[in-house]
Amino acid sequence: MRENGRSMVEMLGVLAIIGVLSVGAIAGYSKAMMKYKLNKQSEQLSTILNNFMMYVHDFKFDDLTYMTDILTKLNAIPPEMIKDGKDQNFVYDALNNQYVLSCHISQGTYFCSVYIGMDTSNYSVESCRNIVTTVKENAADLWQILMYKNMGNDIVNRTYGDKYCNGSSVPCIRYMKLADIENFCRSCTVEDSCHLTIHMR
After folding, report:
1. How many independent structural domains does the chain possess?
2. pLDDT digit string (tens) for 43-55?
3. Which residue, of 52, 113, 124, 158, has the fewest CB within 10 Å?
């Protein structure tokens, strides 16, 4: 008499195949989501930089002045970056990096800053690379970009915009190659409490 159904071995084989396919699907979804978030981060940072630079010379504050509220009223910040229930001086990009926008005079020089506190729960070199690549597109209008660690006490890397760099002696944002960007971003680790600061003047 022939029995209907599948043997235990066959069922285990089917479950193994389903498991492998599921892992592949999850990995593919995670990769697609990361790509989406990186693209969104670039879009958000470009919007902030382009809009902020339009107003840099309209603001003249002696003391450190947080610009988030002012720029929000000027529709210069993507609304999804503003989080309810958070400190209103901060905005957040698609990868949960915290931004502080400010202007002030220091040592006789007036400048505005985009401070990007990298998500300390998971410092991502990929996110940093994306930020620096986006900043390169605005090199003509920027003063400098700095990599800090240890809550802003140590500058570990610096590169300059077109008007302030001088080839090999003073590195230029515009001419950073992929290896330069990689080295710039790997000069900090998750343990260092990394942040980037973009200066305009």
Report:
1. 1
2. 999 999 999 988 8
3. 158
